[in-house]
Specification:
The chain has 906 residues and is mainly β. Helix content is 3%, strand content 51%. It has 4 helices and 53 strands. It starts with 40 loop residues before the first strand and ends with a strand.
Length: 906
């Protein structure tokens, strides 16, 4: 028997997927839009030169054949830079295939029209040819045929597998077909036994046997097992950035992060530049900024809060999240209304192939997600979640009446999205015009509830706090050639109800806004982006409050007077708009992006106008090394309700300002390691603080504003991010290290007014304890270290951990252990030391997550245990004094908290 070697490339373009590495600072080349598009391979690599492998002599002597499955890294020039076997077959075939493939040459691949390095799966077949028929032999009659047709489905999720190669037999000339976008294929083969082999990128090799009858059609449905977790990357590309630091998190990776209870958005708290907030707070403290100075958005639309009350989960169901973009600073001119960072959560389209969904239940809440196609080009996705801690907790509290009171959150949220136009993952024809869009409604409801261990309480305590919001958003994207337009209108309503004691307040905010972003690629080296961003709100306030002492009545000594109740109903209209533009200039390895954002705010008779110039520079020293830097001005308007007349507000407020700058370097080490080091310096000024100034009125009197633009602050530091990705299906672990070294200061310009009242009081210094009006920020944390890692144990088991270590927050100590009795007010007063001259103890905590998954043909099941604070560290979250100010009492955070949950997906 003669022998030779034949190779066959499984390089169908449809079988390659583009994936931005999770948490890498992967840029986006498209126009800044509400939902950033994923990278798209516009030209697949083609094999232009192959080399025949040397057939292993021992295998040849035994008549052995084999198919070696390889993962090939192709450089931007088409040369093979690395080859790794994914399924070793032995008998010398692996070594022979590696030696030959290293000499292959491909045409360069293009991602979004730009040559880029990629990885492809390649199968090298070693076959033995049968000798040719004897000379002069009569030609055989045409053999009968059998038809094999079927559909390829991803096992456990029921997703259709497109671009897979289906072969009937292992011979080099065996018939084969490529599955379409619905996963369907058809083969005509000789009747008899068919040894089926299915090769699909990102899936394990599938082999089975079918007996086919002549002139008959056999239909099969095959379930392919994924080769690894959702992190397997088949095609990688690097694209030009628009921000110095942009950390993108994939939904799948974020859901596996220990300590987050499967909530993808909570992974932000493990990234560099983010200080640890108190455990009952969902605030984002970014690069030394204060609470409320980081913008939180969903699909480009700002929402009032990203997390439910008391540090609960995010207001978005985790299954609905497509990606999460976090900008700690230095972001482009398309973003505004923030002097800190920006978080933009992008939701995903509904499925285009069939119905998919999931149900998740744990001890905190339960929720579902559902997505389905309706008709060609139209799909829908929906999700909802509801907590039930308030219903379960009373069963575990002591039964003595009134001895135990707990404040627990009660929350629910929903998302509903209708997409039209292109299907998810569909790539348009080059140069063709395409319109896509969607409508989305989403909202959240939170309230705090008092839960008692008995039927009655031994004290009169009332508490009512509720916040909720609803948004309706549209999105229309038009693309043709080098022109892209994204138009995003939206409407919304926010409600806030708060009641404690005799004080009650009900606020309603109606909002209306729109964004338009236009991108034009004038040349490969020059891209222009420009747009409009407008926002209007109508605020209604209904408050009943006791009159403040010294303002509406004069208190008398020795007792607590019953104040007169004040009832106020106020309405205000506010407008904030912006025009922005920025340009990318590519000069060889250098990219320069200047931009400017013009801001206009109008509330009542107050009109504020500002320009925010920004500049971003990137230098690609090599394929693996890049330097980057940015500087610019940023503005954030005061809230409309803060413009209420004095003493309830200040109608003369202006924009809050910040100067941000950063300088850093990115380095890719080996294939799966990335290192990012960024230094930053931020200065905030004209920020809104309380109390305001005492100023004369037209009638000759004086009034103290509640707010004033006197806040100042600065922060500087260094951020380090070391990320380990999964390089292939055989790579079992991934994770990252993030570390921030920073220093933050905060305060106000000038002296704090001596006069103060309950409207202007801010509950503490600057200026409250001593003479300082500027100093260490109450949110400063010098060292912030986080280690995250997950290991795939095999057989559906995954084990992950997260360790956090942060410097304790600044506190103000008592200056003495004596008490000061105030006979007029009949209470005790403290004597404090220097403001924020002490710190709480260092915070440290280990969280662990273990998960076991089962993958069935049409659905999958996961059982997980997420344990926070595994070794039960007694971390101090708050410090309280006794009523005589003699002792400080430490209030610890959550103890060890195991959360058991189950999730089913189909």
């Amino acid at each position: 028997m003669s022998s030779n070697v034949k190779a066959r490339a499984a390089l169908a373009a449809a079988s390659m997927w583009v994936a931005t590495p999770a948490l890498a600072q992967a840029p986006q080349p498209e126009a800044p839009a509400a939902q950033a598009p994923q990278p798209t391979i516009t030209k697949a690599p083609e094999l232009v030169r192959s080399v025949s492998a040397q057939y292993p002599e021992a295998a040849l002597a035994q008549g052995l054949t084999a198919s070696v499955r390889l993962l090939i890294t192709i450089g931007a020039d088409g040369a093979v830079t690395d080859v790794q076997p994914t399924e070793p077959v032995g008998n010398g075939f692996d070594e022979a295939a590696l030696a030959a493939v290293r000499q292959f040459q491909f045409s360069p691949a293009e991602v979004d029209g730009v040559p880029a390095p990629v990885q492809v799966e390649y199968v090298y077949h070693f076959t033995l040819n049968t000798p040719p028929p004897a000379e002069g032999a009569a030609a055989e009659a045409e053999a009968p045929k059998a038809t094999l047709t079927g559909q390829l489905i991803s096992r456990g999720s029921r997703s259709r597998v497109a671009g897979a190669t289906v072969r009937c037999g292992d011979e080099a000339d065996a018939p084969e077909a490529v599955s379409d976008e619905e996963g369907r294929f058809t083969l005509e083969v000789p009747p008899g036994e068919c040894a089926m082999r299915v090769i699909a990128s990102g899936y394990q090799l599938y082999q089975t046997k079918e007996t086919l009858k002549a002139n008959e059609t056999t239909e099969v449905k095959l379930y392919l097992a994924p080769a690894g977790s959702a992190f397997e990357t088949v095609v990688r590309s690097a694209r030009p950035k628009k921000e110095v630091v942009r950390r993108t998190v994939t939904r799948e990776e974020a859901q596996k992060t220990p300590g987050t209870f499967g909530d993808p958005i909570r992974v932000i708290q493990t990234l560099p530049g983010v200080a640890r907030a108190p455990f009952i707070s969902g605030d984002l403290l970014v690069r030394g900024s204060n609470p409320g100075q980081t913008a939180t958005m969903m699909d480009g639309v700002r929402i009032p809060n990203l997390f439910h009350l008391l540090g609960g989960p995010s207001v978005v169901n985790g299954e609905f999240i497509d990606s999460l973009d976090f900008y700690p600073g230095g972001y482009g001119s398309q973003y505004g209304r923030a002097v800190g960072g920006v978080v933009d959560v992008s939701t995903r389209k509904g499925a285009a192939d069939t119905v998919h969904g999931s149900v998740k239940v744990d001890v905190l809440d339960a929720g579902f997600f559902l997505e389905a196609p309706i008709t060609e080009g139209i799909s829908v996705a929906a999700a909802a979640r509801r907590s039930y801690v308030d219903a379960l907790l009373p069963a575990f509290l002591p039964k003595d009446e009134g001895t135990t009171l707990s404040i627990v959150p009660v929350y629910w949220d929903y998302q509903l999205r209708l997409d039209f136009g292109a299907k998810r993952g569909e790539t348009p024809e080059p140069g063709a015009a395409r319109s896509t869009g969607y409508l989305m409604a989403f909202g959240s409801d939170d309230k705090l509830r008092l839960v008692s261990g008995g039927e009655k309480q031994d004290r009169d305590i009332t508490l009512d706090s509720r916040t909720r919001f609803h948004r309706l958003k549209g999105d229309w994207t038009y693309r043709k050639g080098n022109f892209t337009s994204v138009f995003t209108p939206y409407v919304g309503v926010d409600y806030t109800d708060f009641s404690v004691g005799s004080f009650t307040e009900h606020d309603t905010i109606y909002s209306l806004g729109a964004r338009e972003v236009v991108t034009v690629e004038l040349a490969p080296e020059f891209v222009l982006r420009s747009g409009l961003d407008v926002y209007f709100d109508h605020v209604k306030i209904d408050a009943r409050t006791p009159a403040p002492g010294g303002t509406e009545y004069v208190p008398f000594p020795g007792a607590e007077p019953v104040a007169e109740m004040i009832h106020e109903k106020l309405t205000m209209n506010g407008f904030d708009g912006a025009l922005f533009t920025e340009m990318d200039f590519k000069l060889g390895p250098v990219t320069i992006t200047p931009g400017v954002r013009g801001n206009l705010q109008k509330v009542g008779d107050t009109r504020n106008v500002l320009l925010d110039p920004r500049l971003w520079v990137r230098y690609a020293a090599s394929e693996n090394t890049a330097f980057k830097g940015s500087l610019g001005l940023y503005s954030q308007p005061a809230d409309t309700f803060q413009f209420i007349y004095s003493p309830y507000g200040n109608p003369l407020l202006a924009y809050q300002r910040a100067f941000q700058s950063s300088l850093g370097v990115e380095q890719r080490l080996w294939e799966s390691w990335n290192v990012d080091v960024t230094g930053f310096y931020n200065r905030r000024f004209e920020n809104v603080v309380a109390p305001g100034d005492v100023r004369p009125t037209e009638n000759g009197g004086f009034v103290q504003d509640r707010y004033v633009n006197a806040g100042i602050g600065k922060a500087y530091g260094v951020e380090l991010m070391v990320k380990k990705e999964r390089a292939s299906a055989t790579d079992k672990w991934y994770g990252w290290l993030s570390y921030t070294l920073s220093h933050a200061e905060d305060g106000r310009a000038g002296a704090k007014p001596q006069r103060d009242d309950s409207f202007g009081g801010n509950g503490g210094p600057p200026g409250g304890f001593g003479e300082e009006t500027y100093g260490l920020s109450a949110w400063d944390q010098t060292h912030i270290l986080t280690l995250v890692g997950t290991y795939l144990l095999g057989n559906g088991w995954e084990l992950g951990g997260r360790f956090r270590l942060t410097t304790g927050r600044p506190t103000t100590p008592l200056a003495n252990r004596g008490d000061i009795y105030n006979s007029d007010a009949n209470d005790f007063g403290p004597t404090y030391g220097r403001y924020l001259s002490a710190r709480a103890s260092t915070f440290h905590q280990l969280d662990v997550r273990i998960e076991k998954g089962w993958r069935f043909d049409n659905w999958s099941l996961a059982l997980y245990m997420d344990v926070q604070n595994l070794y039960n560290a007694k971390n101090v979250e708050f410090v309280f004094n006794d009523y005589r100010y003699r002792k400080l009492r430490d209030i610890p955070g959550i103890p060890i908290l195991p959360v058991l949950g189950v999730k089913g997906s189909f």
